[in-house]
Design brief:
Mean pLDDT: 94
Number of helices: 7
CATH class: Alpha Beta
Radius of gyration: 15 Å
CATH superfamily: MoaB/Mog-like domain
Order of helices and strands: EHHEHEHEHEEHH
Number of domains: 1
Helix content: 25-40%
Number of strands: 6
Shape: globular
CATH topology: Molybdenum Cofactor Biosythetic Enzyme, Chain A
Structural class: alpha/beta
Distance between the termini: 7 Å
Strand content: 15-25%
Strand order of the largest sheet: 2-1-3-6-5-4
């Protein structure tokens, strides 16, 4: 089967940052994810819409957005921020409250690839997985990390959409 778009994709990008949400500084990482996705999908046959949310480091707000995303059968959710080990870093724990099928290979690959040069990359607790029909990715909050993670994520993004919907494109 040829890889052709069979549906319009619904994508949500969520930035978790107390300071960016207060206007102390601009959100760079969430807007970068949006830009990377727009550039990527402009070279494909996929039609898409991206919903962007900037929220404080707030578990309840993240939970509400994830619940909304899964209920609306959004195809892809990418969060940025909250994957470290600080006291306000809880993104993976919130995601794991949902029935997530983790895809550990993506994040293991990223941590290994970039951690060999920058050991601090090994401290990220970013996760990838599927909740019902929604791909979910939790990325660190830095723009540099977003570039690295998105480079690797985009390699399997479309294939995962097909797999989730039971479409064999092998």
């Amino acid at each position: 089967m040829k890889k052709e778009a069979f549906k319009d994709l619904k994508i949500r990008v969520i930035t978790l940052s107390d300071r960016a949400s207060q206007g102390i500084y601009p959100d760079k990482s969430g807007l970068l994810i949006k830009e990377i996705l727009e550039n990527y999908f402009s070279t494909t046959s996929w039609k898409y819409q991206i919903e962007y949310n900037l929220i404080p480091d707030n578990e309840a707000q993240l939970t509400d957005l994830l619940l909304k995303s899964t209920q609306n059968k959004e195809d892809i959710v990418i969060t940025t921020g909250g994957t470290g080990v600080g006291p306000r870093d809880f993104t993976p724990e919130v995601i794991k409250k949902f029935p997530v099928k983790e895809i550990t290979g993506i994040m293991e690959n990223i941590r290994t690839k970039y951690g060999s040069e920058k050991p601090n990359a090994l401290l990220s607790r970013g996760i990838a997985g599927v909740i019902s029909e929604t791909q979910i990715y939790a990325l660190p909050g830095s723009a540099k990390a977003v570039n690295e993670y998105m480079t690797e994520i985009l390699k399997t993004l479309e294939h995962l959409v097909f797999m989730i919907h039971g479409i064999d494109i092998h």
